[in-house]
Amino acid sequence: MRVVFVTGATGVEKRAALTTTQHYAEAKGLVEPGDLRVYHVEEVIKERGRNLRAFADITAPDVQQSAWASAVDAIGERVAALTPRPRCVVVVMHYFYYYRTRIFSPVTWEPLRRLARLADSVAFVSLIDDCYAMWARIATRTFGPRPTDLRLKECFTWRSIETTASDQCAGELMAGEANPPPTASYVVAVNQPPITLVTNDN
């Protein structure tokens, strides 16, 4: 089983890109239905009773990290209970958030590490898009936490640190493990063809 952590700033249409990729892979026979499972960390946070706006408003880092870690652990429990194991599990998340003029990350590595231990291989995929397109989408959002007065240059910064942090996590997450699964890191534009994210060997 491969575990793929997908990151990307707000304004990158991660859900649409992954839905298109899943439909493409199944239609082409690259995966069987059920062999590709997709989990969204923010959806699990909401399932566990936290409004995303309230989550973003939390100013105590330990409380925010605890809520985020609990959601990732819940995904890990669901994956561990699957029989048989799927071929690929995709976990979609924000590594960083920008909200009310501050950039912050609720990410802690230990829950990611616990999930990665279930895998034969791990990949981190940073989805990116044109910053002007991201900026425009964020400005017109009518759901969830919306950044306040996000400037275009801050959108560039957000995209850059999201990609850098994801790559760093890929390189260091399993350091010190006795038998770590092979881990790869990719940066992929959301407007690339679905085949970019799906190959016969992953």
Q: Which architecture would the CATH scheme give at its second level? A: 3-Layer(aba) Sandwich
- What is the radius of gyration computed over CA atoms, rounded to a whole number of angstroms? 16 Å
**Biggest sheet details:** 5 strands, parallel
| Structural class label | alpha/beta
Please bin the fraction of helical residues. 40-55%
Q: CATH superfamily, please?
A: P-loop containing nucleotide triphosphate hydrolases
Low-confidence stretches: none
CATH topology, what is it called?
Rossmann fold
Classify the beta-strand content into a percent band.
15-25%
Characterize the overall form: globular
Q: Quickly count the domains.
A: 1
Quick check: average pLDDT? 87
Q: Oligomeric state of the chains?
A: single chain
What is the strand arrangement across the widest sheet? 2-3-1-6-7
Write up this protein.
The chain is α/β, with parallel strands linked by helices and 202 residues long. The protein has a single domain (2-196), classed as 3-Layer(aba) Sandwich (Rossmann fold). The chain has 7 helices and 7 strands. It has helices at 14-27, 41-47, 52-57, 61-80, 109-116, 131-139, 152-172; strands spanning 2-7, 36-40, 88-93, 97-99, 102-104, 121-128, 183-189. The strands form 2 sheets. The chain has a 5-stranded parallel sheet, sandwiched between helices. The chain has a two-stranded antiparallel ribbon with strand order 4-5. The chain is globular and about 45 Å long.
